[in-house]
Amino acid sequence: MEIIKKLTGTTLTVSLTEQLDTVTAPELESALNDLDGVKEVIFDFEKLEYVSSAGLRVLLATHKRMMPVGKMVIKNVNESIMEIFEITGFTDILNIE
Amino acid sequence: MDAHSKKILDAYVSEMPIYEKLRDVVTSALKETLSKGRLIAGIETRLKTKDSLAGKLELKGMKYSSLHDITDILGARIITFYTDDVEAVAAVVENLFEIDWANSVDKRKIHESNSFGYMSLHYICRVPESLYKDENCPEINTIRFEIQMRTALQHVWATIEHDMGYKTDVEIPSEYSRALSRLSGLLEIADEEFKTVRQEITEYRRKVLTLVKSGNFDDIGFNMDSYKNYLGVEPFKPLLDKIASALNAEVQQTGFMPYYDVLKQLGVKTLGDIEKMKKECSDDAVRLVLFQIGDKGLDIIASTVAINSLCTVYTLKCGNGEQGVKNILDRLYGERERNVSAAKRIVEQAKLLNIVK
To answer: How many helices (H) and strands (E) does chain A have?
Structure first.
């Protein structure tokens, strides 16, 4: 998985590729360690193909960190990942555009 | 201005810093104490300007032997939403300050039964040493000040009357005085109505809570209040536990309020309808979720998974098909193209499980 981070002002855009799973979720977790001063995190899932439970947990943790200071949004979600969000009920928790 | 009045005015100018200190002490004590509850609509404090005091002294300077005889140089006003909260606020004020009962007046009670006008509770107070003490400024504990307590509607009436520019009601031409009295009576009725409505809502909520706790769901109409109380007894937990246990999944808590609109759309009229829905659709709701998640190896779910599946199965069993499922998705996540394909997938899954033909 490739993690591309782009900070524009207080908005951090994080683009991911391939799979967010048990192996790659810890990488994303470390990449998001320092969110000081960030008011908005945008995940761009255009090139992401799959999210596992481990990936959901990292997204959830980031969502909870951002709630008090700003927001987290997930964009460009493909059909199969959207289905994962829907069947797990994560569509009721996360902001998915 | 006569010499006596001028002496009082000069005393005010030289004691202004003490009055400002007193204002700050009173303001912060009131705000700190009253902001804890939800009794009040607002607090105002003000010191009389030098000009305003001069005007008062011109009119009745001889009435006062010294500056400290004037009890409304510092005035505080506490505005409540409801008439019964005036009494509650008064109790707080009585606890906070020393009340000069001889000079305090309940202007709500001075009117005859057939007259209407200014309605406000006025207390003349002092700051007790237990609340604030400054060795260098003992006057803080001796200077009296006035606190007016009234409802927002009484405040509106008094403010408008004051804005008309008459210092006393006897100055107002009788035709206008009558109009103002009429309005005062009207606002008194409105205040009473607001109080009654609040009491009835409180009573209704208490009744709903009792019925929910006793499990008499058929007797409880479905509305936002009853739904909130219903959620308090965790009605979807057994269903959720069943799903989580079968999947060995961690449950992430999230709010159920978005499902209020969905249940409404599904025609739920009483909490009993939801109970009936649970009775008739729970087994299939569990089967559907397990089928959807089972082979994907996911072990984290939101707490709304159960209610979501329940609503989906219910609408399908009602014969609403894909459109019914789409309506739920539209209601929850807004109308979007994706809801059509998602609804189609869910219906296919339900058909495979023989939930619908």
So the answer is: 3, 5
Closest residue to B333, CB basis, from A57, A83, A91: A91
Residue B111 confidence (pLDDT):
66
Residue B155 CA to residue B119 CA, distance in Å, equals: 9
Nearest C-alpha neighbor of B53 from the set B20, B18, B8, B15 = B8
Interface of A with B in 45-64 (CB under 8 A): 52-53, 56-57, 60
* Nearest chain B alpha carbon to A83: B342
- Asked if the C-beta of A83 comes within 8 angstroms of chain B's C-beta atoms, the answer is yes
A76 to chain B, minimum CA–CA distance in Å? 12
CB contacts of B345 in chain A (<8 Å) are 83
Residue B112 reports pLDDT greater than 70? no
Using the Cα atoms of residue B335, residue B336, residue B340 and residue B343 in order, give the sign of their dihedral.
Answer: negative
Cα–Cα distance list, B61 to A89, B22, B102, B103, B247 (Å): 75, 23, 21, 18, 85
Q: Note the pTM of the prediction, 2 decimals.
A: 0.68
Q: Chain B residue with minimal CA distance to A91?
A: B333
Q: Position of tokens 């994080």?
A: A14
Question: For residues B288 and B312, is the Cβ–Cβ distance under 8 A?
Answer: yes
At B73, list the tokens.
Answer: 């140089």
d(CA B208, nearest CA chain A) in Å: 28
Query: Would you place residue B59 in the very low, low, confident or very high pLDDT band (cuts 50, 70, 90)?
Result: confident
Q: Show residues of chain A in contact with B300, CB under 8 Å.
A: 53, 56-57, 60, 88
In whole angstroms, what is the distance from residue B8 CA to residue B73 CA? 12
Q: What is the pLDDT of residues B71-111, one digit of tens each?
A: 999 999 999 999 989 989 999 999 999 999 988 887 767 66
Per residue in A70-86, is it b (16+ CB within 10 Å) or e — as a string? Answer: eebbbeebeeebbbbbb
* A92–B342 CB contact, under 8 Å: no
Residue B118 CB-half CA count within 13 A: 18
Secondary structure class of B139 (helix, strand, coil): helix
